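QUALITY CONTROL LOG
STEP: pairwise intake check
CHECKER ROLE: data steward
CRITERIA: each record must contain a sequence immediately followed by its C-alpha cells, with no blank fields

ENTRY 1 OF 2
RESULT FIELD BELOW
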Amino acid sequence: MSIYLDYQATTPLAPEALAAMLPWLEKQHANPHSAHAEGRAAKAAIEVARAEIAKLLPPGGSISFTSGATEAINWAIKGAGRDRTVTFATEHAAVLDTVQAREDDPQILGVARDGLADPDEVKAAAHGAALSAVMLVNNEIGVIQPVAVLAEQAHAAGALVLCDAVQGYGRVTIPETCDLIAISAHKIHGPKGIGALWIRDGIDLAPLLHGGGQEARGRSGTLSPALCAGFGAAARLMRERREQDMVHVERLWAVALETLGEGWTVNGSTEHRYRGNLNVRRDGLDVSRLMSDLRDISFSAGSACASGSGRPSHVLRAIGLSDAEARSSIRIGFGRYTTESELIDALTRIDDAARAQRFAA
C-alpha cells in the first residue's frame, strides 16, 4: 500500500467535501445563473459555500470564485494596473511568471538564508508600484512570511498587497491588512478545479476573463455548484478542525525530525514555518534514484508545478543553496490524514535508502 506524503502538491479529498459535491454531480444539474427554481437552488448552494469560505478570511471584502489560485493570482496582478509589481524570488511560479510576462524589468526582491523577506526592502522598492505580492506560507519550504509587517510597509509606499494564501488558508491567520487574497480548494482537502480571489471592498480590478460577468466582481464563466459545495465543506472542516489538525501536524513534525536523524538539514526557517512541510537535504543525495527506489512513497523533489523541468528549485537557490544542494533536497508533506506509523515507516525507508546510496558510491 502506498504512503502519500505530498500535501503541498495537493491534499486528499475530505469525505465530507465529496458528500457535499455528490448531489450536484448526480441529480442537481441546473445552471446557477438561471432564473428558474432549480437555478436559484444551485445559486443558493454556492452562496452557502461562499459564506463558509469567508469565515476564514478577513472582514471587509468579497469572494469571487475562479478556476483555481493560478487564475486568481493572474487576475489580481493583471487587473491591478500596468504599474510595477514588487515581489520575492521565492514566490510561486504563478506570481513570478505573471509578473515577468507583463513587465520588462520586474522588481523581484531576495530573501535571507532562512527564507524570510526584509520589510525595509519592501518599503524602499514599493514606491511607484501598483502591487506588492507575497506568499503567506511557501509551498516548497513552508516558511511563513511576516505578511502583516510587509503589508504595512507596502501600504506606506502606496502599493496594494496581494497575498498568495494557498498553503496557509485555514492553517495560518491571514492578516486583515491584505487587499487581495488568492486561495485554492484542493490544498485544504477540497476538489481540484476551483479557487477564489478575495477582494477588499473599494478595490476595482480590470477583468481577466470577458463574457457574462457572472461573479459580482466581474469574473466571467458558469460556476460549478458541485465544486463550490466541495470547497465550502472543506473550508468548514478547516475551521472546525483547526486546533485538532494543528496538534496533529506538530506531533508529526517532531516524529519526522526524530526519525530522519543525523545527516539531514532542514531548508528554511524552522521557527517561522508551517510544520506540515518538511523540506530537507542530504549531501550527495541522488533524489531521482531515491524516488525510483521508493515508488510506493509519494514525496517530492520540489514544486509539482516545476516537476520535470530538470532545473534546481528556484526557491532553494533563492535562499542561497548551491545547485548541488538544491538537487539533493526532498519535500515531505503531511497533514490531517497522515498517520504517525506510516510517516515513521516512510521516513525510515527514505533514510535507509539515502544511507545505502553513500555506501554504494
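ENTRY 2 OF 2
RESULT FIELD BELOW
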Amino acid sequence: MRVAYQYRLRPTKQQAQEIDRWLSMLCAQYNYLLADRFDWYERNRCPINACPLICHLPELRDNPDYFSQKKTLPQLKVTHPWYAEMYSQVLQDVVKRVKVTFDRFLKGDGNGKRSGKPRFKQRSRYRTFTYPQMKEGCLQGNLINLPMFGKVKVIMHRLLPDDFKIKTVSVTKKADGYYVTLSLEDKAVPEIKLDINPDLITGIDVGLKDFLTTSDGEVVPIPQHYRKAQKRLRVVQKRVSRRKKGSSRRLKAVRCLGKQHKRVADKRKDFHFKVARKLLSTYDVIAHEDLNVKGLARTKLAKSILDAGWSNFLSILTNKAENAGLLVIAVNPSGTSQDCSNCGVKVPKKLHERWHSCACGCELDRDLNAALNIRKRAEGHPVLKAQLMSEAIAGVTEKLPPNLRFGA
C-alpha cells in the first residue's frame, strides 16, 4: 500500500534559486523530448486514405520510445554541461513523463480512453521534479538529503510511521512556497472489517443546497469557499489585467492571485478531510452515487459543482476507507431522487422541487429520500450482500451443536 505525506520546505535563498534553475532545465528537456516524439509522429503517419500508383514516400524514423530517449541523456550532459550538475534519475523521470503523456495520446489509458494532444510546457507550468529512488535515512530530523542537491529544511508537522519506507520524493513549487511529497510504502495490507454492523450502513446524497445528506437525516451544510472568495479574487484578477504583460509588477500580481486561489483550494480540501473522517468514524459502510462529475461540470451548474468538489471528496473518502478497512460502495444514480424510498413508485420532480410527496403517504426532503434509496441499493450490492450472508451463516453455525457443524 502506498500513502503520500506532504511537508513544507524551508530552502535558503540560494537553494530556492537552484530549485527554480532545475525546473527550468527540466522544462526545456521535457519540451525537447516531446518535440522529438511529434517529429516521429508527423513523419510516419499518412494524412490520406489512399495513395496514387506513383508517389514519394518520406524516409521513416524509428519510434523514439522510452529506452531510446533515455540513451540520449549521457550525450546531453556532454553537449550541455550544466545538465551534469543534476541527478541522473531526475532526468530519467522526465523521459518517463513524456512517455506516459504520449502513450495516453496514442493508445489511451487502461480503460482505452485517449487524452488530447500533449502540449508544450511553459516554464511557469512545470512545477515538480521527482527522485524515483531514495536511500534509507534520507530524512534526518527536520532535514531531507536530496542527492546532488543537498540538505533542505523540512517543516515536520507530523511524524512518519516507523514501519513505512520512503520510495519516491517529489519537490513541488506552489504559489506560496516549496513542498516535498514523500511516497511511503507499507507492506501491511489493511483487511476489510469482517464484523459489519447492519445498523452502521448509511447512504449519502451529495448536492448543491447542502453538501451532503445521510440516510439518518444528518445534513452537512455546503461551505461555498470559492463563491465567498469571489469578491477578493475579482479585485486581484482586475489588478493582473491592468498590468503590462511581461512586467515584474504583473508577475507579482499573478503570484498574489495564485496565493488566493490556493487558499480557497486548501480550505476546500480541509473541509473534505474533516467530513470524510466524521463519516468513517461513525459508519462501517458508506454508499454514494456513481456520479459522472465531468459531465455535470459542463452544465449551467458548473461553477457550483466544481466549488463543492464532489469528485475530490469521494476520492478522499474511498482512500481513507480503504486504509481503515471500511467499505465505500458506489451505486447506480439513476432515479434516486425520483423513486419513493417507501414504496418504490416513481414520483417525477423538477430540480427546483425540494420536497418529496408520494401517494403512499411518504413525505420528506428530496435529498433525504435520495439518501434512503442509495442505502437500499447498497444493501443489495454483491460485496456487501456476500459479507452479510457470511456473517449470518457464521451466526447460525455457532448455535448448532458441535457434531452438526461443518467440518466436525
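INTAKE CHECK: passed for both entries
DESCRIPTIVE NOTE, ENTRY 2: The two ends are 38 Å apart (CA to CA).
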